Predict the 3D structure of the following.
Amino acid sequence: MQGKAELPGQDMVQQQIKTMLQTSFAKLDLVTREEFDAQSAVLQRTREKLEQLEAKVAELESAK
């Protein structure tokens, strides 16, 4: 016998809870860690490009 005893119907209850949680999470506007990391990388590159463009504009304006 393993370390914990299972109650009759415990598997069914666990499956119902899992299904209920999955349904609730599906209704929320959540993203995966991978999606978040990918968008963070895009944002970082965009910020770097913006800084480069701001520096170029400042350089061009000072040359007038």
Summary: Residues 31-64 form one domain. The radius of gyration is 26 Å. The chain has a mean pLDDT of 90. The chain has two helices and no strands.
